[in-house]
Amino acid sequence: MSMIVLSNVDIFDGVSPEIMENHHVVIADGRIKEITHREVQLPGAHHISGQGKTLMPGLIDAHYHACLVQVQGYNMTTLPPSLLYPAASNLLENSLQRGFTSVRDAGGADFGLAEATRTGLIKGPRIFYSGRPLTQTGGHGEMRAKVHEEPCLCASHQAHMVAVVDGEDAVRKAVREEFRKGADQIKIMLNGGVSTDADPVWLCQFTDDEIRAAVDEAERRRSYVMAHVYLDKQIRKAVELGIRTMEHGNFLTLDTARYMAEKGAFLVPTLVTYQAIREKGRAFGFNDEQFRKLDAVSDAGLQSLENAMAGKVNIGFGTDLLGDMHVHQSDEFLIRSAIQTPFEILKSATSVNAEILNRTGDLGVVAEGAYADLLLVEGNPLEDITLLTGDGCHLAMVMKDGKVMSK
């Protein structure tokens, strides 16, 4: 049994704002075996000095798109899988180098991609995948051209990116199919979005019965539903009908935030994607209508985060970036710092996101028994959040499953 000892490290455990100074951590079989003040002497163990550094949990991105490898992410009808998956592999490897040891894929990834990262064929984060997001005809994610007749999505390379379903029975069948293929959770589109053309942001998608069907099937699988949603009234409906995580949520009011907190629902803001599209979208082909939709949602983003904080909502951390814009993944830390403290941000990206994944105690914490998904940071990120920005230049080590993945 190979063992690693991290010595003389200061620890941010992902839960408490207090740093545990000058500790020693023993790692074996991919998990944290011991955390102690006493010096550890284990013959044959690999010792890594953490003097002057902070040990913290690996980061978790709870709204990630490994397979939207083009900035115009839903316009991929001619992209062959033989090109798609190497491009997705590159995005995942870069995210791992930034310190993201787990991601919740919000649409497109499948069993094969998750298994490739699990077995080490791809040097990337753990993937908790949603399979194909569910949308209605003309809803967010619809990419069929505006013509009288169009073949179904099964005739395109994009059949794996979205499932267009209408009616309670069709929703049930689609949810069952995604779970059959190994999905960890289900994603459903409840409002329109920025990146596709057929769906205004104000469009409220799916009937109550359709939404209930998705939630019921997910609960049968001891899982949950995550919802792409913007409008406050649709957020409230989603919470009422049992949806667990609200993605984006840019028009969340304080009253609905309090209701979310009461019901135990989570918010996963994705503020960096709007900034990235605003700065670079034109160069990647975003059109005037998409920019009008972007303006409508992005200006409200920070206010929704402020409302969520005031309403005591459990807030996760996500990015929702597309293609080359993944380079801005860590900029979400900077944007949130206008509203949240470094501790609040880092807790979102570690232990709160682990709770979203239903992996409390396994991921997102530095604790005995947890997986050894760890970062060794040059300095204290609770004092300087910029230590987690960029491409991992301030990370002395990235460890996943007890294996050193970089540095």
UniProtKB/TrEMBL annotation:
SUPFAM superfamilies attached to this UniProt entry: Composite domain of metallo-dependent hydrolases, Metallo-dependent hydrolases
Name of the molecule in the record: Peptidase M38
Segments forming domain Amidohydrolase-related: 54-404
CDD domains: Met_dep_hydrolase_A
Molecular function via GO: hydrolase activity, acting on carbon-nitrogen (but not peptide) bonds
